[in-house]
Each structure stands twice: as C-alpha cells, then as structure tokens.
Amino acid sequence: MVKKSDIKAGKDNAVSKLESMGNTLLTEIEKEQSPSFEAPLRGRSNVFHNEKTGCLYLGEKKEKRFFLNVAQAKKFMQTVAVASKCKKFKEENLHTSIRGLFYQLKFTLGDDIDEELFEEQSESNELVEDLEVSLAVKREELNLNTARKGVVAGPIRIKDKFAGDETIIDGTKQGRSGWMIPSDVDNGMELLDVDADYVLVVEKDAMWQRLNEDKFWKKENCILISPQGQASRGCRRLIRRLADLKLPIYCFADCDAWGWYIYWTIKTGSMNLAYLGESIATPEAKFLGVTMSDIDTYDFLSKLTIRAKEVDIKRAEEMLTYPWINKHPEWVNELKTVLEVKKKLEQDALQGPRLTFVADYVREKIEKKKFLP
Amino acid sequence: MVKKSDIKAGKDNAVSKLESMGNTLLTEIEKEQSPSFEAPLRGRSNVFHNEKTGCLYLGEKKEKRFFLNVAQAKKFMQTVAVASKCKKFKEENLHTSIRGLFYQLKFTLGDDIDEELFEEQSESNELVEDLEVSLAVKREELNLNTARKGVVAGPIRIKDKFAGDETIIDGTKQGRSGWMIPSDVDNGMELLDVDADYVLVVEKDAMWQRLNEDKFWKKENCILISPQGQASRGCRRLIRRLADLKLPIYCFADCDAWGWYIYWTIKTGSMNLAYLGESIATPEAKFLGVTMSDIDTYDFLSKLTIRAKEVDIKRAEEMLTYPWINKHPEWVNELKTVLEVKKKLEQDALQGPRLTFVADYVREKIEKKKFLP
Fold first, then answer.
1. Which residues contact A336 (CB under 8 A, 6 or more apart)?
2. Is B103 a catalytic residue?
3. Domain containing B71: what range?
4. What's the ipTM?
5. Taking CB atoms and an 8 Å cutoff, what residues of chain B touch A351?
6. Close Cβ partners of A291 (under 8 Å, ≥ 6 residues apart)
7. Last residue within a domain, chosen from B114, B145, B176
8. How many helices (H) and strands (E) would you count in chain B?
9. Which tens digits make up the pLDDT trace of B291-307?
C-alpha cells in the first residue's frame, strides 16, 4: 500500500525498489527455486472502505506468479520486462506514456526470437498496475506519464523543476486559461506559497471559466480548480496536497450521477485506484452543491430541473447501498429526493437569472456552511 | 462568410451587427411585413472546397425564416431570443457557454406564459450557428465560450487582456505543462513576440510531453502545439494566426483515420464549420508524418505497425474521393498503400528504439523537407 509518507514530493525510492525486486528474483534463481512475483488482487472483491481514514483500500488477498508455471510464465516474463524498462527510463531520466512503454516492450526479446512478448497494450497496462501495487510506488515515480486534465488558478506559486530547468508558476498570472494540471504534481514540483482560504473544485470547465472571469479566486482568496469532468490522478494528487496544507476543500458539481461520482472519487478514492489508498483521496472534502434542497432556497431553480436519466437513478440507488455514504443522513435524504422526484439539476442552471449569480451562490453556501458531508 | 479581415484580434463589430439585425426586423414590422431572418444552409450539400484558397466554404443556398408562418414562428422567436441574450452578454462584458445561454433562455417568456421557448439545448446550439453565419460573426465575438483543448509552448509571448487585467504569457516558462489554449485566442489576445522558425503541431498530448521534456522547442526554436486530439476552434485559430505571421506549419500525426482527419481539418477547415471558411483553416500546413513510406526509411517500424481498423479503411477510401485530396499524388499513394497492406502506424511507435528518437525523426523530416502536401 502506498502511504502518505512514501509519496512526499521529491523522494525517489523507485529505483531501489526495482533493484530489490530484481535481487529477490536472483536469490530465488541461485537457490534453484522458481522465481516468483507477488501482487495484491485488484478486483472489487478486494476493495474495502476504511471507516477510520475514510478512504478506499485494497485488502489482503494476493496472487503469486511463478516463472516455472506454464500458465504464468508469459505474464511473469512480461512483468519483469516492464520493470526493466521502467528502471531504464529512471536511469535515462526520461518520461513516456504507457503507449510509449508498450512500443519499447515490442523489442524485449530481440530480433532472433520469432515470438511477441506483448501483442496488445492492455497487457502492459495491467502489469504497470501490478508493479505499482507490489512495489508500493506510483507509476509517476516509474517515469510513466498518465493522461492529464484539469486547470488551476489563484494564490498559489509552484516551483516546477523539470528537465533540468526551474520554472515558477504563478497561479494569479494565468489570464483566461489557468495553469494546466500536469500528470505528475509530486516529483520535482514544490508548492512555494499557497496563501488561500480554501480550495473550490468546480466540476465543469465552463463554470470554472465563468468564475475565473468574475475573478472569484481573487475576491474570495481561494484556489480555483476544475478537474474538467472526472478528476485525473494529477488533479486528485494536487487536491490532496492542498488539503495537507489544511485548506478546506469544497466541491461544486452537478446534482446527478456524474457529479456525485466525481465528488466521491475525490473524497474516498475510486475502486480502480484503491491500491493508491489515502495518497489519492481527500476525505476532508465537502459537497457544496448543487443539491435538491437548493430548489427550496432558490425559487428559479424549480424551472430549471431536468428529468433524471436511468444512469442517475441507478447510481443513486447504488450509492444508497454504500455504507460510507448511507451513514450520512444528508446524503440519504438527497438521494431519496432524486429517486422520488426523478429530477436532476446542473450547476450551469445557476446562470439562469444572471451570469454572475454563480459566484453569489458559492459565496452564500460557504458563508452559511451549507455542505453535504 | 467570415473573412480574414473581419476577425482581426480586437475588432469588435458584433454589437453593431446584432443591432442592425434588430433594426431590420423593426423596419419590416413598421412596413407591416412579416419579420424575417435569412441564413445560409449549413448542410453538406452546401459545402464546397475552393481550389484557389484551399478552404471549405458554404455555398449560396439560403433559408429564409418568417415570423408569420406557423411552422417557422417558434424558430424565429428563438433566433431573436438568442440574439437578444448575446447582445446582453456583450453589454455586460461577460462570457458564458452555450449551456449557460440555454439556461438564460429558459426565462425568455416571463413567468406568466405557460410555454417553454426552449426545451432542449440542441435547439439553441443550432441557432447560435445560424447567427454566426448570417451576421458573419464568430460565437467567440458573441461572448460565448467554446470547449477548449490544446496546449502550447515555445518562443511566443502573448498579452492576455482579460476581465480588466493584463497578463503576459511566456511560452518558454510553462514547465512540464505548457499553456492551455483558451476558447478565444482573438478578442483581447495579442501575440507580442513570436521569434520561432516554425510551428510543430503534435496530435497526441503524450508525444507533446515527450518533445517538451526533450526541450525540442528550445533546441529547434519552434512553437510546440498539441491539439490533444481533434483541434478545438481556439487551437485552429491560434494555428491560423501563427501561419499569418509566415511561420511554416508542420503537422505530426498518426497514419490512420483519426490522424488524417485532424490534419485535414486544420488544413482546409471542417464540413461542420465550413461557415467559418478561411478564418479557421490553414491551407499552408504540411503533413510531416508518420507515413507508410517511413517504414522503408526506418526499418524498426515494420515491427510496430498495427492492423488497420474498418474506420481507417473507410476513411482512406472516402478521402480518395475528395478532389482536394486526390489531386495530390503523394496522398493517393499513401492512402492506396494503407488500403493495400491494411496496416496503420502510430506516432508513438517512434519511441520503439529509444524515447529520444521522436525528436530525431521530426528533425530529419524537416531538414529533408519530407512532407505530404
């Protein structure tokens, strides 16, 4: 499991972990044992919510893979090949995507063997996750970039030590665009000054632009982030790092399947990345809105609801079965209202009366502390 | 049609055009005629390629909409409502998305009329395009943001006059991330210095990151752009503006349906946005690769081709029927090779032998001027 203490920015133990993995294999060979590789199972049956920390984790179930086993030999060789390539990338001090890794792996066996070790990229993806889990390193530390998405602006200064250069990113000087959140916000990235009162995470890029134009982050002295939909790993790590600085995290999303999912993924982590545990979750996050009860407060919203789709209904029902959600009466109430009235509500609807109403709404919610947990 | 001269950064004639539209309606009413609104048809049957300029345009076919026509009355009222809202946004000096516009339109008729002027956002989307075409303004000039995507780095300095502030964006100081290309790169956005030798447009964000890490833009003194897939309106406008500065534009994409589409959209404009004509097209652009003939030059690539999918085959066949493509023997040859060998090739494959090979490839292609037209 990756612990918070393992992933402090700058600390690089990936190479030593890769070497130790290789040494273990060598020892097994010297002892005339079958080389083996052990990794926790990542299926949903091995995902658990920890009541105390509020995060999703992997459980104890493990799988052991042996070289001298006909069914496992290929996968075993593949795992070692991926580890070997990552070690090379680390030594070269170069990064690539898992697609780039895949193309390098095509040359693993050399020209004289008429056999492909990897046919499809999906094979190598899975092995990257295996390595992350068993070595307790993040793929970003293995010099593998992940898809990046998300934008940030506000009173934050970041030192980006990248490719031998040093750049200071000033979150107050990003104009209409904001700074694009990179794949890796840990290694070689230092938060210099964060002189903000809180962090506002806005689901949709269009709403982020609306608030950015209103200089919301300046007026309210906050950090304005949009994951631009589902939050990337980099965005989730940035939110985690800001929460570590004791900044309150408020999430502003749609009242629908997708909005709830984005929020809960930021808060508890996701099933798929449960192996990253607390390093990618922010249990301190609060849900600012929009909510069904907003309709009672702001009359005009009753005209702007949308019929809930099947996916919204299904998701609401599913969420009501999760113990870490149904323990909150506020969420039970919210989801049951959706199931009853079969309506949903978008954050964009707050622009109905006037474009600048969005900022007033957020301000009022924060002042009155009207959040869902 | 929007002409290049109409869309110079800073020139704002949208309000006067909206007013003139309103005045025409008033005159018709005073003359006791049915108010009317004329817009060119935007269907494919009215899209033409202009051999001389190398761009796609709308033809002469038009549609006239009358208020006093039962079938057209609603659409007519909707058009006027959209125009009126956009005028309000201009006067407020505020921007929103077309989703924000949609929610404002929900209040057009007032509370005492039990009739919705707009049910679905798709209705208002279409009317925004109608307005763009008939008034020859871009939606960005109507203060409507479009979805933004794309990233830029390199020797470029941009003055962003946004929301009353002035920010200087320095394309050499964007670290690992690059500057996110905004929705609108014209209004209030000035290119201060662009001291580059050429522009390299890289289809995939992962490959952009690879080249950015190698400081390709620094070593080669070029502007490094990734549309991150299909190019947004903002990205296409930025490429057009850079081409206006006489910088050569080289596109580096996959050899497959999607890569070719991205290239030709940048070069000639797209069918959907044919009404924007030359303002969103860059006929000067060249296709740098990857190409099927690369396999003859770089042996290792033969091991890294992928089976072409049906969509690739279909697209290649379709492209061979376009006169503006099949007039180039180089493209005919390329597409016929794909149809013959039924293989495709990704730009990522260039990382096969070593990660830094990508930069060598691009450099060699540019030195030897090995482009497709």
1. A320
2. yes
3. 4-145
4. 0.92
5. 96, 100, 103-104
6. A255, A334, A345, A372
7. B145
8. 13, 17
9. 999 999 999 999 999 99
